[in-house]
Design goal:
The structure holds two protein chains of two kinds. By secondary structure, chain A is mostly helical. Chain A has a single domain, classed as Orthogonal Bundle (Helix Hairpins). Chain A has helices at 6-26, 30-54, 61-91. In chain A, helix 1 packs antiparallel against helix 2 (30-54) and helix 2 (30-54) runs antiparallel to helix 3. The N and C termini of chain A lie far apart (53 Å). By secondary structure, chain B is mainly alpha-helical. Chain B folds into two domains: 1-84, Four Helix Bundle (Hemerythrin (Met), subunit A) (Up-down Bundle); 125-185, no CATH class. Chain B is built from seven helices and no strands. Chain B is globular. The chains are: A mainly alpha, B mainly alpha.
């Protein structure tokens, strides 16, 4: 245990990213897959903030990227949930295994 | 080891533990609540890094907005008390293996790179600085992405309404319209 620095925050961010990837691989429910994507986006935000804080502390570019990523993630979550609810209305299920209409 | 460090480690454990539970829990509602706590842990790390504005945005947009949206959609699409089906063991083992290898590889790469950390007195950005740079039109300003994101949000809003709107008696309307057209002819 030592004083936390860039490496520690990178560890948290990488671990969160791969936890999100694991959830995306193993889950078969669309809402839980969306939750995994939120975890991945958050780990990326944490990365931006950590590099901004420790490598370029006199600039604010990482901070702006984080703000834009948060805004786009909100839009993405809203559109994804609209699609999921519409899919539930037509198929009565939001499991990815049951939505095969567009399968070639 | 000071109190500052202990707070950081506690926040890290909260974030990673709740994130792990959120992707492994078989109750979907519990998974959403664990996701909420993971996002709050990340907001705590932003507070710990003294980026208060980002932490506030994280709490308002993620913890307050997206999690509530996800919980609403769970209520709309899931039966109460129903567990998610157990996944195949093979799939779990191989995903865990792949993810662990990728994690180790990425971490080794990042630690070997040796980023040059800068120990300048970090000016904790105030809301005024952020606002000035965000709406600035010179080369360091972010006015153009700001406007692009605003148009994107408007498009997403309209798109969501169009996708999720319930089409009532769509076929009836079409046939009525056709009847009207034919009668007019």
């Amino acid at each position: 245990m030592m004083t936390p620095g860039l490496e520690h925050i990178l560890f948290i961010s990488f671990a969160l990213f791969f936890i999100g990837i694991y959830g995306f691989f193993t889950r078969r429910n669309l809402i839980t897959m969306l939750m995994s994507i939120e975890l991945i986006l958050n780990s990326v935000n944490l990365n931006f903030i950590a590099f901004n804080k420790y490598v370029w502390p006199d600039k604010m570019d990482g901070l702006f990227f984080t703000l834009f990523v948060i805004a786009i993630a909100a839009a993405e979550a809203a559109v994804a949930i609209a699609i999921i609810i519409n899919l539930y209305r037509t198929h009565r299920s939001i499991d990815v295994e049951n939505t095969e209409d567009m399968k070639f | 080891m000071t109190g500052n460090d202990i707070i950081f480690y506690l926040l890290g454990i909260l974030t990673l533990g709740c994130g792990l539970l959120s992707v492994t829990s078989r109750h979907i509602f519990r998974a959403a609540v664990f996701l909420l706590f993971s996002l709050i842990g990340i907001a705590g790390i932003y507070f710990w890094l003294q980026y208060e504005f980002i932490a506030a945005v994280q709490i308002v947009v993620y913890a307050g907005g997206i999690t509530v949206l996800i919980i609403f959609s769970i209520f709309l699409t899931q039966q109460a008390g129903e567990k998610l089906p157990i996944q195949k063991l093979n799939r779990k083992i191989f995903s865990a293996l792949a993810v662990f290898c990728a994690f180790a590889l990425a971490l080794v790469q990042a630690y070997q790179h040796g980023f040059i950390t800068n120990n300048k007195p970090a000016a904790s950005p105030s809301v005024q600085d952020i606002g000035n740079q965000m709406l600035n039109v010179n080369e360091t300003g972010y006015a153009l992405p700001f406007e692009a994101v605003s148009i994107l949000l408007l498009a997403a809003l309209v798109g969501c309404i169009v996708i999720a709107i319930r089409e009532k008696n769509n076929t009836n309307n079409i046939s009525e319209n056709q009847n009207v057209e034919t009668s007019q002819k």
